[in-house]
Amino acid sequence: MSRFLNIVPVADAVATVLRISPGLMTETVPVESVAGRILAADVTADTDIPGFDRSVVDGYAVRAADTAGAGEAIPALLHCTGWISMGRQDTKLAVGPGTCAYIPTGGVLPAGADAVVMVEYTEEAADTVLVKKAVSHSENVLLRNEDFKQGETVFSSGRRISPQDAGVLAACGCAAVTVAKKPVVGIISTGNELVPVTAVPEPGQVRDANASMLAAYLMEYGCIPRVYGIIADEREAFEAILARAVPECDVVLLSGGSSKDDRDMTAAVIATMGTVLVHGIAIAPGKPTIIGRIAEKPVFGLPGHPASAFVVLIAIVRPLLDRMLGISRPIQRTARATLTINIPSQRGREEYVRVRVEKGVATPLFGKSGLLNTLIRSDGLICIPAGSEGLEQGSMVEVILW
Ligand code: AMP
Ligand code: MG
Known about the structure:
Elements: H1 10-19, E1 26-30, E2 43-44, E3 54-55, E4 59-62, E5 76-83, E6 99-103, E7 115-118, E8 122-125, E9 128-131, E10 141-142, E11 153-155, H2 163-171, E12 176-180, E13 184-190, E14 194-195, E15 206-207, H3 210-221, E16 224-231, H4 235-248, E17 251-255, H5 266-273, E18 275-279, E19 283-284, E20 290-294, E21 297-302, H6 306-325, E22 334-339, E23 343-344, E24 350-358, E25 361-364, H7 373-377, E26 380-384, E27 390-391, E28 396-401
The structure holds adenosine monophosphate and magnesium ion.
The site of magnesium ion (MG) has 5 residues, from loops.
């Protein structure tokens, strides 16, 4: 096997990832526990919303024409014929010329009425109501189906369900929501130098940061992370853990050992148990990345440095998750900012630079590879395309926010 990586452009790597992506799997979940899930079917309103003309204020249901010209000085005098009850349609109460009925917020507008005067603009004197403000037709009334019409598509599949969405889904009568099944993603940390979080590292050792970072990201993204722990740089350990993880997961991520040193086991083991499709991507950081497949399951070898692993996770693994989850529009929070200094970049590779963003200004955080602190001091990444030799001070950049 050659000692050099066979570098492919990011677009080719992503195309490979999409080619081997498992299909979308769906399940239904109760609308009460749907937050953060991805809708896997369009949702239509099962009824008109609202299903009746509804007052949006506490006040008096009137005929707008009866209030024409009314004001503080010359109120309109209307005869109050009764009170509307909440939660039902009162068929007995009707509003005719010169009359009104008290209506609470959410009450059904009585027959004959076409507007509501807010109680603040009225005064009651026995059966007579003084209306001190004119209202126009439909004022303070939410008309039947003004929100959503029966049969209207309210949500399209592929959308990540927000708390607001959950409320609207419930209003649309969607008790069981069809969503993408959460992909199970195995996480394996590799390296003789790695120790668990609970250990105090001896000289030469480092705590496993990647497993927790990857698990946190995956959980937030809508997957089920499955952490397999740390394995040594030994072929048998790799084979044993992959033999367990591959059948149990939809995707497996290994971190560390993804390059071509003698100690780097990942590619060789994937090649034995399955196929290595990509080894080396024109991305920085993250060049020594592996995309492979074992038993039809995508298996990634991510670089060991947490910051590199994270960039590869976002740039290369996320498109796979999007495909598996059926995400139509990936949420990528971005901010536009002005660059404080020149950033040179090597043409031919996509470069991701961590930046801090403050008041519309992006400051790159350069540092030696392997630093953890730039991960938390930064607000996001800017991507310098492969075809560019860098970005100039003062230019507008788009920051992919964390
Ligand atoms: P490797 O990709 O195995 O050559 O590792 C590159 C660097 O990343 C080395 O300094 C490793 O110690 C470090 N590293 C590898 N895996 C992890 C991990 N899970 N957590 C923190 N650092 C790691
Ligand atoms: Mg290693």
